[in-house]
Amino acid sequence: MRRMISYRCMLIMFMLFIPTQVVVAKKGEINVGPIIQQERSHATIRVLTYNIHHGEGMDGKVDLSRIASVMKRLKPDIIALQEVDRYVPRSGNVDQAAELAELMGMHVAFGKAISLAGGEYGVATLSRYPILSSKTTLLPMARGGEQRVLLTSQIAPARDIPPITFTGTHLEVDPKSIQAAQVDVIMELYGTSDPYILAGDLNATPNSNTIKTLRSKWVDATAEITDWTNEEDGKIDYVMYGARESWHLASTRILKEDVASDHRPVLAVLEWRGNGSEK
Protein backbone atom coordinates (compact mmCIF):
# COMPACT_ATOMS: atom_id res chain seq x y z
CA MET A 1 0.00 0.00 0.00
CA ARG A 2 2.82 2.40 0.89
CA ARG A 3 4.57 1.55 -2.42
CA MET A 4 1.37 2.39 -4.36
CA ILE A 5 1.05 5.76 -2.56
CA SER A 6 4.70 6.50 -3.30
CA TYR A 7 4.17 5.81 -7.03
CA ARG A 8 1.13 8.10 -7.07
CA CYS A 9 3.08 10.91 -5.41
CA MET A 10 5.89 10.58 -7.95
CA LEU A 11 3.39 10.67 -10.83
CA ILE A 12 1.74 13.83 -9.48
CA MET A 13 5.11 15.55 -9.06
CA PHE A 14 6.12 14.58 -12.60
CA MET A 15 2.91 16.02 -14.07
CA LEU A 16 3.44 19.30 -12.23
CA PHE A 17 6.65 19.85 -14.19
CA ILE A 18 5.19 19.11 -17.65
CA PRO A 19 4.98 22.42 -19.64
CA THR A 20 1.40 22.88 -20.77
CA GLN A 21 -0.54 25.37 -22.81
CA VAL A 22 -4.10 26.23 -21.93
CA VAL A 23 -6.34 25.71 -24.94
CA VAL A 24 -9.81 27.21 -24.83
CA ALA A 25 -12.31 25.00 -26.59
CA LYS A 26 -14.30 26.67 -29.32
CA LYS A 27 -17.99 26.07 -29.66
CA GLY A 28 -18.50 22.55 -30.96
CA GLU A 29 -15.05 21.42 -29.81
CA ILE A 30 -14.05 19.40 -26.78
CA ASN A 31 -11.12 20.48 -24.64
CA VAL A 32 -9.33 17.34 -23.48
CA GLY A 33 -6.36 19.20 -21.93
CA PRO A 34 -3.78 19.46 -20.74
CA ILE A 35 -2.41 19.67 -24.31
CA ILE A 36 1.27 20.13 -25.11
CA GLN A 37 1.53 22.31 -28.26
CA GLN A 38 4.59 23.33 -30.20
CA GLU A 39 4.66 26.72 -31.90
CA ARG A 40 3.98 26.29 -35.62
CA SER A 41 6.70 27.56 -37.90
CA HIS A 42 5.63 29.23 -41.14
CA ALA A 43 7.23 28.77 -44.54
CA THR A 44 9.01 31.90 -45.77
CA ILE A 45 9.92 33.36 -49.14
CA ARG A 46 12.78 35.84 -49.44
CA VAL A 47 12.03 38.14 -52.38
CA LEU A 48 14.67 40.47 -53.80
CA THR A 49 14.42 43.16 -56.45
CA TYR A 50 17.59 44.60 -57.96
CA ASN A 51 18.22 46.89 -60.91
CA ILE A 52 21.71 45.75 -61.88
CA HIS A 53 22.49 48.46 -64.50
CA HIS A 54 23.70 45.71 -66.90
CA GLY A 55 26.30 44.79 -64.28
CA GLU A 56 28.10 48.12 -64.53
CA GLY A 57 29.04 49.61 -61.18
CA MET A 58 29.54 53.21 -60.18
CA ASP A 59 33.24 52.66 -60.79
CA GLY A 60 32.55 51.95 -64.49
CA LYS A 61 33.39 48.25 -64.21
CA VAL A 62 31.06 45.52 -65.50
CA ASP A 63 31.30 42.78 -62.89
CA LEU A 64 28.61 40.11 -62.59
CA SER A 65 30.53 38.31 -59.84
CA ARG A 66 30.24 41.45 -57.74
CA ILE A 67 26.50 41.63 -58.42
CA ALA A 68 26.13 37.98 -57.38
CA SER A 69 28.13 38.57 -54.20
CA VAL A 70 25.83 41.43 -53.23
CA MET A 71 22.74 39.29 -53.78
CA LYS A 72 24.16 36.33 -51.87
CA ARG A 73 24.48 38.49 -48.78
CA LEU A 74 20.68 38.71 -48.69
CA LYS A 75 20.05 34.97 -49.26
CA PRO A 76 17.11 35.44 -51.65
CA ASP A 77 14.75 32.72 -52.85
CA ILE A 78 13.32 34.68 -55.78
CA ILE A 79 14.94 37.66 -57.53
CA ALA A 80 13.50 40.23 -59.94
CA LEU A 81 16.32 41.74 -62.02
CA GLN A 82 16.10 44.81 -64.23
CA GLU A 83 18.40 46.22 -66.93
CA VAL A 84 19.78 42.85 -67.95
CA ASP A 85 21.84 42.37 -71.15
CA ARG A 86 22.01 39.31 -73.37
CA TYR A 87 24.89 39.18 -75.85
CA VAL A 88 25.47 42.95 -75.86
CA PRO A 89 29.01 44.21 -76.57
CA ARG A 90 29.07 46.75 -73.71
CA SER A 91 28.75 43.91 -71.18
CA GLY A 92 31.04 41.37 -72.86
CA ASN A 93 28.57 39.64 -75.19
CA VAL A 94 27.38 37.26 -72.47
CA ASP A 95 23.95 36.09 -71.41
CA GLN A 96 23.83 37.98 -68.11
CA ALA A 97 20.69 36.26 -66.87
CA ALA A 98 22.19 32.81 -67.43
CA GLU A 99 25.55 33.87 -65.95
CA LEU A 100 23.94 35.20 -62.79
CA ALA A 101 21.74 32.11 -62.48
CA GLU A 102 24.85 29.94 -62.59
CA LEU A 103 26.66 32.09 -60.04
CA MET A 104 23.64 31.99 -57.73
CA GLY A 105 22.76 28.34 -58.33
CA MET A 106 19.21 29.26 -59.37
CA HIS A 107 16.66 28.71 -62.13
CA VAL A 108 16.23 31.55 -64.62
CA ALA A 109 13.75 33.19 -66.98
CA PHE A 110 14.46 36.18 -69.24
CA GLY A 111 12.03 38.70 -70.69
CA LYS A 112 13.21 40.68 -73.72
CA ALA A 113 12.17 44.32 -73.80
CA ILE A 114 14.24 45.62 -76.74
CA SER A 115 16.92 44.62 -79.21
CA LEU A 116 20.23 46.31 -78.41
CA ALA A 117 23.49 46.40 -80.37
CA GLY A 118 22.92 42.96 -81.87
CA GLY A 119 21.73 41.49 -78.58
CA GLU A 120 18.81 41.83 -76.19
CA TYR A 121 17.97 43.90 -73.13
CA GLY A 122 15.23 43.39 -70.57
CA VAL A 123 14.33 41.85 -67.23
CA ALA A 124 14.98 38.48 -65.63
CA THR A 125 13.74 36.30 -62.80
CA LEU A 126 15.99 34.01 -60.78
CA SER A 127 14.45 31.41 -58.49
CA ARG A 128 15.74 28.85 -56.06
CA TYR A 129 12.52 26.96 -56.79
CA PRO A 130 11.47 25.46 -60.13
CA ILE A 131 10.01 27.90 -62.66
CA LEU A 132 7.04 26.05 -64.15
CA SER A 133 6.38 28.56 -66.94
CA SER A 134 7.13 32.14 -67.94
CA LYS A 135 5.69 34.66 -70.36
CA THR A 136 6.61 38.16 -71.47
CA THR A 137 3.89 40.79 -71.88
CA LEU A 138 4.52 44.01 -73.80
CA LEU A 139 3.33 47.10 -71.96
CA PRO A 140 1.87 50.29 -73.46
CA MET A 141 4.51 52.73 -74.65
CA ALA A 142 4.74 56.29 -75.92
CA ARG A 143 5.57 56.90 -79.57
CA GLY A 144 9.34 56.89 -79.78
CA GLY A 145 9.64 55.61 -76.22
CA GLU A 146 11.34 52.51 -74.88
CA GLN A 147 9.40 49.25 -74.81
CA ARG A 148 8.75 47.95 -71.29
CA VAL A 149 7.59 44.46 -70.35
CA LEU A 150 6.20 42.24 -67.64
CA LEU A 151 7.95 38.94 -67.03
CA THR A 152 5.50 36.69 -65.24
CA SER A 153 6.51 33.27 -63.96
CA GLN A 154 4.71 30.45 -62.23
CA ILE A 155 7.03 29.37 -59.43
CA ALA A 156 6.61 26.23 -57.33
CA PRO A 157 8.10 26.54 -53.83
CA ALA A 158 9.28 23.31 -52.29
CA ARG A 159 7.42 23.69 -48.99
CA ASP A 160 3.87 24.37 -47.83
CA ILE A 161 3.29 27.23 -50.25
CA PRO A 162 1.13 26.87 -53.37
CA PRO A 163 2.48 27.89 -56.80
CA ILE A 164 3.13 31.63 -56.90
CA THR A 165 2.43 34.01 -59.77
CA PHE A 166 5.51 36.24 -59.77
CA THR A 167 5.86 39.34 -61.95
CA GLY A 168 9.06 41.29 -62.43
CA THR A 169 8.99 44.60 -64.31
CA HIS A 170 10.68 47.91 -65.04
CA LEU A 171 8.12 50.63 -65.70
CA GLU A 172 8.47 53.71 -67.88
CA VAL A 173 9.68 56.94 -66.29
CA ASP A 174 7.76 59.48 -68.39
CA PRO A 175 5.17 60.39 -69.44
CA LYS A 176 3.22 59.48 -66.31
CA SER A 177 0.14 58.82 -68.44
CA ILE A 178 1.99 55.89 -70.03
CA GLN A 179 3.13 54.66 -66.63
CA ALA A 180 -0.49 54.76 -65.47
CA ALA A 181 -1.55 52.75 -68.52
CA GLN A 182 1.14 50.18 -67.72
CA VAL A 183 -0.18 49.87 -64.16
CA ASP A 184 -3.69 49.36 -65.53
CA VAL A 185 -2.44 46.39 -67.56
CA ILE A 186 -0.78 44.81 -64.51
CA MET A 187 -3.92 45.16 -62.43
CA GLU A 188 -6.18 43.87 -65.20
CA LEU A 189 -4.01 40.81 -65.79
CA TYR A 190 -3.13 39.88 -62.22
CA GLY A 191 -5.53 41.73 -59.93
CA THR A 192 -7.24 38.48 -58.95
CA SER A 193 -4.18 36.21 -58.92
CA ASP A 194 -3.60 34.47 -55.59
CA PRO A 195 -0.92 34.17 -54.33
CA TYR A 196 0.73 36.97 -56.30
CA ILE A 197 3.98 38.93 -55.97
CA LEU A 198 5.02 41.99 -57.99
CA ALA A 199 8.61 43.24 -57.82
CA GLY A 200 10.78 45.64 -59.72
CA ASP A 201 11.92 49.13 -60.55
CA LEU A 202 8.60 50.97 -60.82
CA ASN A 203 10.17 54.39 -61.50
CA ALA A 204 7.71 55.96 -59.08
CA THR A 205 8.12 57.44 -55.61
CA PRO A 206 5.90 56.43 -52.66
CA ASN A 207 3.56 59.44 -52.92
CA SER A 208 3.00 59.07 -56.66
CA ASN A 209 -0.34 58.13 -58.18
CA THR A 210 1.30 54.98 -59.56
CA ILE A 211 2.19 53.62 -56.12
CA LYS A 212 -1.10 54.75 -54.60
CA THR A 213 -2.96 52.83 -57.31
CA LEU A 214 -0.92 49.68 -56.82
CA ARG A 215 -1.33 49.88 -53.03
CA SER A 216 -5.10 49.94 -53.51
CA LYS A 217 -4.83 46.37 -54.80
CA TRP A 218 -1.71 44.93 -53.19
CA VAL A 219 0.32 45.30 -50.00
CA ASP A 220 3.53 47.30 -50.34
CA ALA A 221 6.15 45.30 -48.47
CA THR A 222 8.54 48.26 -48.68
CA ALA A 223 6.19 50.81 -47.12
CA GLU A 224 8.43 51.30 -44.07
CA ILE A 225 11.53 51.94 -46.19
CA THR A 226 12.13 55.69 -46.44
CA ASP A 227 15.68 55.76 -47.79
CA TRP A 228 16.45 56.02 -51.48
CA THR A 229 17.01 53.03 -53.72
CA ASN A 230 18.38 55.17 -56.54
CA GLU A 231 20.30 58.26 -55.49
CA GLU A 232 19.06 60.38 -58.39
CA ASP A 233 15.39 59.41 -58.34
CA GLY A 234 14.74 58.40 -54.73
CA LYS A 235 12.85 55.32 -53.59
CA ILE A 236 11.60 53.66 -56.78
CA ASP A 237 12.16 49.91 -56.22
CA TYR A 238 9.38 47.80 -54.66
CA VAL A 239 8.06 44.40 -53.64
CA MET A 240 4.28 44.06 -53.40
CA TYR A 241 2.10 41.08 -52.63
CA GLY A 242 -1.51 39.99 -52.78
CA ALA A 243 -3.54 37.50 -50.73
CA ARG A 244 -3.58 39.79 -47.70
CA GLU A 245 -5.07 37.08 -45.52
CA SER A 246 -2.39 34.57 -46.52
CA TRP A 247 0.91 36.47 -46.42
CA HIS A 248 2.54 38.06 -43.38
CA LEU A 249 5.42 40.48 -43.83
CA ALA A 250 8.19 39.18 -41.58
CA SER A 251 10.79 41.79 -42.47
CA THR A 252 12.05 44.10 -45.17
CA ARG A 253 15.37 45.79 -45.75
CA ILE A 254 17.43 47.79 -48.16
CA LEU A 255 21.10 46.94 -48.58
CA LYS A 256 23.13 50.13 -48.71
CA GLU A 257 25.57 48.93 -51.33
CA ASP A 258 26.39 51.86 -53.59
CA VAL A 259 29.18 50.60 -55.88
CA ALA A 260 27.98 47.46 -57.69
CA SER A 261 25.05 49.24 -59.40
CA ASP A 262 23.28 52.61 -59.47
CA HIS A 263 20.42 51.02 -57.50
CA ARG A 264 20.32 49.41 -54.09
CA PRO A 265 18.82 45.91 -53.69
CA VAL A 266 15.56 45.66 -51.74
CA LEU A 267 14.55 42.50 -49.85
CA ALA A 268 11.19 41.44 -48.42
CA VAL A 269 10.75 38.30 -46.31
CA LEU A 270 7.20 36.95 -46.55
CA GLU A 271 5.65 34.26 -44.37
CA TRP A 272 2.94 32.09 -45.86
CA ARG A 273 0.10 31.60 -43.41
CA GLY A 274 -2.30 29.88 -45.79
CA ASN A 275 -5.75 30.91 -46.96
CA GLY A 276 -8.06 31.85 -44.14
CA SER A 277 -5.41 31.60 -41.42
CA GLU A 278 -4.63 34.30 -38.93
CA LYS A 279 -1.84 36.75 -39.56
What count of domains describes the coordinates? 1
Shape: globular
Secondary-structure element sequence? HEHEHEEEEEHEHEEEE
Percent of sequence in beta strands: 25-35%
- Rg over alpha carbons: 24 Å
Query: What is the CATH topology?
Result: Deoxyribonuclease I, Chain A
Biggest sheet: strand arrangement: 3-4-2-1-12-11
Structural class of the helices, strands and pairings? alpha+beta
Which CATH class applies here? Alpha Beta
Number of helices: 5
Give the averaged pLDDT, no decimals: 87
Profile the largest sheet: 6 strands, mixed
Summarize the structure.
This protein is globular. The strands form two sheets. Strands 3-4-2-1-12-11 form a six-stranded mixed β-sheet. A six-stranded mixed β-sheet has the order 5-6-7-8-10-9, with no helix packed on it.
Write the layout of secondary structure elements.
Elements: H1 2-16, E1 43-51, H2 64-72, E2 78-86, H3 96-104, E3 107-116, E4 119-127, E5 131-138, E6 149-155, E7 164-170, H4 176-190, E8 196-201, H5 209-215, E9 219-220, E10 237-241, E11 247-254, E12 266-272
Parallel strand pairs: 1-2, 7-8
Antiparallel strand pairs: 1-12, 2-4, 3-4, 5-6, 6-7, 8-10, 9-10, 11-12
Helix pairs in contact: 2-3, 4-5
